C-alpha cells in the first residue's frame, strides 16, 4: 500500500511538473527564426526586404494577455523589419481560459508595431469564433493595420496576397488570384492555414501560414500528433519544400485548447527577401 501511494504521489508530481513546464513554455518569449528567400523575379536594383511573419496570437489569459503581446511587439520592432505580416488568429474563443479580451484590448498593442511598409493581417478561424462573425477588421484598421480578405496589395518589391479563412468558408481562390494578378512583381501568399497551398495556381511559389502551432503539444520520442490540418502532418511546422512551391508554417505565439506548449516553443520568423543568388 505504501509503495502504491508513493508511486501515485510521484505520478501526481510528474503531472504537475509537466503542466507547469507547459505553461511556462507557452508564456516564454518567442524564438526568432531566420530565413533568406532568393526570389527569381526580384525587381532589378531593388533592395532586400526584411519581413516578419507572426501568427496565432490568441490573446487570452493566462498565457497571452495584452501585456505579453506588447513585449513581443517590442521584440519585433527591435529587428527593424520593412514589413510585418500577421497570419491570423489574433483573438481567442477557447473555453479553457482565465480571461477573454475583446477586439479593442486584443489589438491595442499592435498599434506600436513599426515597419517601413506597414503591417498586413489576414483572419483565422478563431477570429470568426463559433458564430461565424468577426469584429476585428475595424479595430485592426484603427491600429494602422491593413486587413486582406481575398485581396492583394503591393508593398515595396513584393505583392502580398491575403487569403480569408478557409475553415469558415470565407476563402475565395479565384478572387485572390485576380487581385494578385492585377499587381506587378513577385507574389507571396499569406494565409492563416497552410491548407490552401495544394490547390493554388502554380504562379505562387511561396505560402506563409500559421494555424498548426507546430503541434503545440509534441510528446518526446513520438513527435507531433496533430496539426489541425486536412493534410495530416504534411504542413505541421517550419519550411516545407514541395515541387514548385515552398510553404512556411510558424509555430505562432499563443495556444488553443489548453494553455500549454510542450516540444513546440512559440516563434516568429524574420524573412529576408532578395534577388536570386548567382
TrEMBL record:
This is Calcineurin-like phosphoesterase domain-containing protein. Residues 49-214 form the Calcineurin-like phosphoesterase domain. Pfam families: Metallophos. InterPro entries: Calcineurin-like_PHP (IPR004843), Metallo-depent_PP-like (IPR029052), Metallophosphoesterase_sf (IPR051158). It comes from the Bacteria. The lineage of its organism: Bacteria, Pseudomonadati, Pseudomonadota, Alphaproteobacteria, Sphingomonadales. One of its GO terms (molecular function) is hydrolase activity. Signal peptide: none annotated.
Amino acid at each position: 500500500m505504501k509503495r502504491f501511494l508513493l508511486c501515485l504521489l510521484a505520478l501526481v508530481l510528474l503531472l504537475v511538473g509537466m503542466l507547469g513546464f507547459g505553461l511556462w513554455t507557452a508564456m516564454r518569449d518567442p524564438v526568432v527564426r531566420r530565413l533568406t528567400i532568393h526570389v527569381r523575379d526580384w525587381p532589378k536594383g531593388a533592395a532586400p526586404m526584411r519581413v516578419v511573419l507572426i501568427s496565432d496570437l490568441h490573446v487570452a489569459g493566462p498565457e497571452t494577455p495584452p501585456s505579453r503581446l506588447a513585449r513581443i511587439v517590442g521584440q519585433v520592432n527591435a529587428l527593424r523589419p520593412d514589413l510585418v505580416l500577421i497570419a491570423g488568429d489574433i483573438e481567442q474563443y477557447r473555453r479553457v481560459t482565465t480571461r477573454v479580451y475583446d477586439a479593442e484590448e486584443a489589438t491595442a498593442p499592435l498599434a506600436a508595431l513599426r515597419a517601413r511598409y506597414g503591417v498586413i493581417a489576414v483572419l483565422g478561424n478563431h477570429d470568426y469564433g463559433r458564430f461565424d462573425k468577426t469584429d476585428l477588421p475595424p479595430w485592426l484598421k484603427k491600429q494602422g493595420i491593413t486587413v486582406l480578405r481575398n485581396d492583394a496589395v503591393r508593398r515595396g518589391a513584393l505583392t502580398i496576397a491575403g487569403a480569408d479563412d478557409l475553415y469558415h468558408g470565407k476563402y475565395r481562390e479565384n478572387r485572390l488570384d485576380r487581385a494578385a494578378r492585377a499587381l506587378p512583381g513577385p507574389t507571396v501568399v499569406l494565409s492563416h492555414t497552410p491548407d490552401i497551398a495544394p490547390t493554388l495556381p502554380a504562379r505562387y511559389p511561396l505560402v506563409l501560414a500559421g494555424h498548426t502551432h507546430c503541434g503545440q503539444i509534441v510528446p518526446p520520442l513520438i513527435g507531433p500528433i496533430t496539426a489541425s490540418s486536412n493534410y495530416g502532418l504534411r504542413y505541421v511546422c517550419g519550411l516545407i519544400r514541395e515541387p514548385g512551391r515552398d510553404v512556411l508554417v510558424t509555430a505562432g505565439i499563443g495556444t488553443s485548447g489548453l494553455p500549454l506548449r510542450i516540444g513546440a516553443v512559440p516563434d516568429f520568423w524574420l524573412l529576408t527577401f532578395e534577388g536570386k543568388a548567382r
